[in-house]
Amino acid sequence: MIAVIGSGIVGSLIAREINKYIEDVFIFEARNGIGTGVTKGNSGIIHGGYDDTPGSLRSELCYKGNKLYDEISQELSVEVKRVGSHVVALNEDELKAIDELEERAIQNGVKEYEILDKVELLEMEPNLNKSALKSFYCPIAGVTEPWEVAMQATKSVEINGGKVLKNKKLVEVKKKDNKFELFFEDGSSYIADLVINVAGLYADEVAKLFGDEVPYIFPVKGEYYLLGKDIKYANAVIFPTPSKLTKGCLVVPTVDGGYLAGPTAHGVKSKQDLSTTQEGLLEVREKSLRLVPTLDFSRNVIKTFAGLRPETKEKDFHIDVGGGNVIHVSGIRSPGLTAAPAIAKYVVEYLIQEKLHINLQKRKNYIGQIEKVPHLVEKDYDYWERVIQEDPDAGEMICYCNKITKKEIKEAIKNGARTLDDVKFATRASFGECQGSFCIPKILKIISEETGLKPEEVLQNEKGSWIINSEVRAI
Amino acid sequence: MKYETDVVVLGGGGGGMAAAKAADKNGANVILIEREEENGGVLNQCIHNGFGIHYYRKDLTGPEFKETLQEELANTNIKILNSAFVLNVNKDKQLTFVNHKGIHEIKTKALVMATGARERHFNSLAVPGDRVAGIFTAGVAQKYINLQNLKPANSALIVGSGDIGLIMARRLHLEGIEVKGVVEILPYPGGLERNVQQCLRDYNIPLYLSHTVTRVEGNKRLSKVYVSQVDENRQVIPNTEKVFNVDALITSVGLIPLTDPVKFVETGPGFITSNTNQTSEDWIFAAGNCTVVFDLVDYVSREGEKAGKYAALYSQNQYFPEQKVKVKKGKNINILHPMYIDPNERTKLYLRVSKTFKRAEVTVEPLGIKMIEEEARPSEMIEISIKPFKDKNLKEIEVSARELG
């Protein structure tokens, strides 16, 4: 059995890649949801690959990953919108950064870019700060929903004979001949022939359980605003010129028509600190308004949130074989989401086959194409009508903002959703401007009816996130 | 299926039901569309009394108010479509809706929008802190408790002293949930005075005026809410922090008119209408909380009736306003409805002042209307009746308020 520790976008895509050769793949996820760690709280950008330090593993895998997203999008039925990106220079000083980016793009072998002058730029992005002078425009950059990629990839693993297990926190590892015995917090244990550690923020701690040392991971918090769909702010992803530390605070058109502003980048102590702060949110407002002055932070805000990135001193991915048949995939900071499909191939084609000399044969019975439950409101009416004739639930609207039907919610539950967040991230129900005021009580009821869980047992996400305490009175 | 009718009413709450009733009474064929399984909207979960005092001259609960309207509809030819969600309204007077039987089209002559409002969510306020379970809008908490028999909290703080917040403070208290207070950013309560008395003072629930929530904390579920006092500019005053140990935060921080799926008429942010409830698109009428947020369902139903009547007349080519007089917001007026007046018809003007007054004089000029309001507050709507004034030949009238010394 091949064990993959972590169901984030990188772990799930690695598991999927291995699964093309070997049926017996297990994904062990410590949390109560798929892709709910680092994968959930980032900008969702597929970067162009032009700006990573030449010669780094990041630069090697980012551009390749970008290209692989066409295949990912098609095979996993996930949305990838290549909206392009601008790195915008707002003053003479920042013009230098544009030149530097061009040099890097050349070194990284990225040809898909243009340097746009003010007129061209403002024509494409009329809401941009009018003092913009130039932009480094990359048409192959895009956006996706990283958790959706992870969910579809884990679904692919399940369809192809693998297993995806939640609430499996790895606490101990014993080496047995050439194998590892993995012990989990819930008391269960499994024997694995090969282990891939893709534990995100915790990859360094997991590596230690195998007796291996990988670069120390410290969490860097990024705070965001999510803005609504009703105002148009930008067509492409808008970046400021980068600093040494980060790509800066951006304005991102999301896959479903809203906008993200953020992130900040501040080191925090705890790997569980997902709180937003007064200072952080202020910083996001100030910096993003500098790029797009029309952002309406008083009336157009849907919510704020924070995510953590697994940062290392080296600022590069560390992906290598440890002591025995274990591969550590750690330090997957930006552009990890972009690189993820390329990391999966790097692990399977290079580390497993070449470095560990494990000979793999492609499976004949592998199903590559994974369908997604269709979002009915995006389909044509004839199609939708036919679905309703087969299943009346397809005609019952539950989420009014994002227009999600009861059928879509029930399908998500059939596919393993058990919490309100599972349903939210699988269907987008309760993700809209009312933030679930109309639909959450209904979704809670549907989960309860479909799974037999009592309302008191339906959680928001992780253990402890209860919604209902008890009945008001016994009937 | 394809339907054809004179008037479609979109929304089966207190406004929409009254609109359908009036349109039917004025001779139109009517289809009423409601997205929930039952009509009534928020009335269904408002099991307290205080409804109907103006409209029915009776003190009713929300469900009783709904039932009364429902009985009136039962004796008509109105076609009621429940669990039907309107996907699209186009300028050719066609609607598309979906229900469990399929996707359907309606061709109509007039439309009444009675789509109500939604609650502003706490998330949109960008209050710093942890992402935790246990933060509910008052409406959601009310739905759990009153309709689903589910208790979503053991102890709670309420933010926002609008009527829903006040009512929920009492409701939670009566169901054994410890309510540690109601926090209001303004220096005066956001709801009706009668609710402050009956929901808070009667139960010794503290009201913290000029206070705001600055942070929420918890490990997965809410455990602490930080509250500070604010100055007149709503800036936090240092060293005034209080910490409330509660597992729920119930929010009542405003309602936002819902105008979906009609995108092509004048809004601001609700539908802007005339005194006959006509919008900028002459075949579309609007009433109730999708125009401005009203204090009482009684006003909403009254508005609905008017919208239904004029929509019915319009659909039978009997109502065409010759002229629209603009109503201008003058000094100290925050909310004003309607924004246009057909001077051939009577007008019920609703307004909210933008600050508190000990004694306010509200004027409508140049009509020469003057009204004295004692203790005028933004949270209590002021009503002014205006007679038809066609002969005065006006282009614009202006409403303003001033303190009487």
Automatic annotation (TrEMBL), chain A:
Q: Which CDD domains match?
A: GlpA-like_Fer2_BFD-like (cd19946)
Top-rank taxon of the source lineage equals: Bacteria
Q: Which residues form the BFD-like [2Fe-2S]-binding domain?
A: 397-449
Q: Where is each FAD dependent oxidoreductase domain found?
A: 2-349
InterPro entries (alphabetical):
BFD-like_2Fe2S-bd_dom, BFD-like_2Fe2S-bd_dom_sf, FAD-dep_OxRdtase, FAD/NAD-bd_sf, G3P_Oxidase/Oxidoreductase
Which SUPFAM superfamilies does the entry link to?
A: FAD-linked reductases, C-terminal domain, FAD/NAD(P)-binding domain
Q: Please report a single Pfam family linked to this protein.
A: DAO
Protein name listed in UniProt: Ferredoxin
The protein's organism comes out as: Petrotoga miotherma DSM 10691
Question: What lineage is this protein's organism placed in?
Answer: Bacteria, Thermotogati, Thermotogota, Thermotogae, Petrotogales
Automatic annotation (TrEMBL), chain B:
Q: Identify the domain of life.
A: Bacteria
GO-annotated molecular function: oxidoreductase activity
Reply yes or no: does the keyword Oxidoreductase apply: yes
Protein name stated in the entry: Oxidoreductase
Q: Does the keyword Mitochondrion apply?
A: no
Pfam families assigned: Pyr_redox_2
Q: Which InterPro entries match?
A: FAD/NAD-bd_sf (IPR036188), FAD/NAD-binding_dom (IPR023753), Metab_Enz_Cyan_OpOx_G3PDH (IPR051691)
Which residue numbers delimit the FAD/NAD(P)-binding domain?
6-301
Keywords in alphabetical order, please: Oxidoreductase
